[in-house]
Write the C-alpha cells for this entry.
Amino acid sequence: MDAPGERETIAAIATPLGRGAIGIVRISGSNAFSLAEQLTGRELPENRLASIRYCLDGNGEILDQGLLICFKKPNSFTGEDVVEFQGHGGPVLLKLIWQRLLALGARPARPGEFSERAFLNGRLDLAQAEAIADLIDAGSRQAAAGAMRSLRGEFSSRIEYLRQQLLALRASLEAMIDFSDEDDVSDLLDTQIGDTLRVLSFELNELLLQAEQGRKLSQGAVVVISGAPNVGKSTLLNRLAQEDVAIVTPVAGTTRDVLHTDLELNGIPLRIVDTAGLRETIDPIEKEGVARARKTMQTADLIVVMDTAKEQADVGVLKQLPAHIPVMRLRNKIDLSGDKAGYQQANDIIGISALTRAGIDDFIEVLVRKLGGAQPMETAFTARARHIHALKQTNEIVEGARQVLNNQAGVELLAEELRRAHDCLGEITGHVTADQLLGEIFSSFCIGK
C-alpha cells in the first residue's frame, strides 16, 4: 500500500449520473492543486474560499463555469489536498471536465477511494467510513439519524472504550506476572482480572444488543411470510407494500419463487419476503420454490407463519422451522371465519384479514415489538453484519478467558485470550485490518465518495 505522501492524485464525478442543476468533480492527492490550476488556467483561490472559475479544455476553450473550492491537507475530507469544482449538472460537461483532469495526469478514482483515503490518513475510522455509505443508503429518517451518529463516532467510542478496558487488563496481567510473588498472583487474578472480565462481558452483551438493532436500522430487518399455499401470504405482502407486488389468484401454488418488497414500518426499514407455500409437491418448479423458501428462512430476523381457521398450520411444518429464528403466528381470513381481529393471548395468534385490513395495525405493532422496536432517535446508531460478527467473536473470546481463569489454565493462555479479544474489537474500527477487508468494504461505495 502506498505511503500517504506517495498516493496518486485521483479524480471522479461526485454527483449521481444523469441531468441535474449542479454537478461536482472532485480531485484528491499531492498534485490536486497543480491539476486544478492547469484546468482553470488561473491561480487558485484561498483555502476554503469558493471562487468562480472557468474549466478549460486542452485548447483553452471554455468547458464550463462554476465554483472552485480548495481544501489544504490535512484539514480536508481525505486528509490530502482536495479540490472540488461545482458546475452545471449536465453529464456531458462533467465527463469532459473529468476526462481533462485524467489527461493532465489524474487517475480515475475507484469506488469509495476518497473515503478509503480518509480512513488511511486517520480522518475517519473504519466504522465511521462505513457510516457514510449507510447515511447515503438510509431508508428512513431514523436510519439516517443513526448513520449520522455512527459517523460522528458514537459507535466507535463505545468500541474504543472496551478496547481500552482490555488493554488495561493486559497491562495489569503483565504487571502481576512481573512484580507479584507466585502465591499472590492467583488471588490478584480472581479479584482484579475476574471482576473486570465479568463487567466487560456484561458491557459486550449490552453493546451487541444495541448493534443488532443498529444493523436492522441500517440494513433492514428481514421478515419472511410463510405458510401453506393459498392462505393469503401474497395478499398480505401487497397490503403492506400498498401495491400489487405479488400475483394473487385463488389457485394454490401461484407463488413459485421468493418475492420481496422494501418498506418502512414505524421507523424500522424492513424487507418483507413472500415465499412459496410450504407443502409436499411433485411439481419440479413449485418444489424448487419451497426449497428456496426454506433457505430464505435460515437468514431471516423473523418468520411470520400464516394460516386460516379452515386450514390451520400443520404441527410438523412448524417443527421444521429454523429453531434460532423468532416466529409469530397470523390467522388470516377472519372476514370469512368470524374470528376476532387482533392479538389473541390464549393461543398467541393475531387474527387478521389481509383483504379488509382488519387486525393489520395490531400485526404491525406486534411485528415491530418482536423486532426489538425502533430505538429512540437520540440513542440509536447504525451497525453492520461484520460488526455483529466481531462483537460476538469478542464475547466468545472473553467468555473463554473467564473459563481459563476459572480453570487456572495459566496466565500465558489468559494473556493470549485477552490479546485476541483486543484485536477482534480492533477489526471493527480498523485498528487491526487487512487490505482484502478494505477492498470489500469500499468497493460497495459510490465512485467519488
